[in-house]
Amino acid sequence: MRDIPVYRQTRRRDRRYTVVVAVNMPYAASQRKLAGIFAHLGSDPDWDIKLFRTREDIESPAFRQLLGSEIDGIIYSAPYSAETFQCLKRARCPLVVIEHDVSELAKRKSDLMFIRSDAEDIVRTGIRLFQDIGPFREYAFVNDRDGMPWSREREAAFRRLAPRDAPHRIYPSSHLTELKDRQPLVRFLSSLTYPAAIIAVHDTRATEIVAAAKKAKIDLPGKLSLIGIDNDPYVCDSCTPSLTSIEPDCFAEGKAAAELLDMMMRGRQRKSTR
User: Fold this and answer.
1) Closest CA to 83 of 104, 52, 98
2) Do 92 and 66 form a contact (C-beta atoms < 8 A)?
3) What gap in Å lies between CA 257 and CA 98, rounded to an integer?
4) Cβ neighbours of residue 153 under 8 Å, at least 6 residues apart?
5) Which of 1, 205, 232, 253 lies in disulfide reach of 28, CB 3.0 to 4.6 Å?
6) Contacts of 55 (CB under 8 A, 6+ apart)
């Protein structure tokens, strides 16, 4: 079993809270959420945080075992897993879930909060930027390959907000690996009417679009203009050409998650809220 880091505060208090925080740290958005959590706690917290930082850690037996132990609260902001959410469903402590609103938790009526970014505001920002630099003959949205719930929300927002004076199309979740998805994505990009504007569901997906465009010999940004979401500096700056991206306020999401969990653990907020 891998050791799980525990962040402890040295000054003794009458009441301390053991809190499980699960965030997928390789991504900049998750790092900003964690920064928001720590911003709420300040320099003298009364939380002992057990931090799970990778998908491997979060899907490990150690994580599930901990959920069944005596802990005071959970903040979950990591990839969806039916098995993991079954464990979260059985947890008897307050729970804050960021970005997911899943069927496994539908019957829980108390000690549960959901925080989600505003998909419409994110997509609207991208479309407005395209309209400022346009005109474009076609608009497109490229989904996450795995069809995550937040990906479907962004797709639905694009359907509602896409300009009515130009055609718009959706590249759906393929549920394929990146390499197996490459050729269908090439065919989709080749079928667009140029110049075309594309919103990618996140920055990593945007880099896959860049690779597919290069394979299809489609000039980018000449024929295709592309915007990602999350503003991950390592992804955006390493992409050629460099990637323009929308930055959701993940810091505020993390800070709100910590504030809400604090309220529930101290008994000031019990009702479930989305």
Assistant:
1) 104
2) no
3) 8
4) 116, 119
5) 232
6) 24, 78, 79
Q: Which H/E stretch holds residue 30?
A: helix 28-41
Is the preceding omega at residue 163 within 30 degrees of 0, hence cis? no
Measured distance CA(75)–CA(263) in Å, rounded: 13
Question: What φ, ψ does residue 218 adopt, rounded to 5°?
Answer: -100, 125
Beta strands in 116-190 (DSSP E): 138-142, 168-171
> Amino acid identity, residue 223?
K
For 216-242, write each residue's pLDDT tens digit.
Answer: 999 998 899 999 999 998 888 888 888
The helix (H) or strand (E) run that includes residue 114 is strand 112-115
Q: 34-50 burial string, b = 16+ CB within 10 Å, else e?
A: bebbbebbeeebebebb
CA distance 73 to 225: 43
Q: Are residues 29 and 250 in contact, defined by beta-carbon separation less than 8 angstroms?
A: yes
What pTM was computed for the model? 0.82
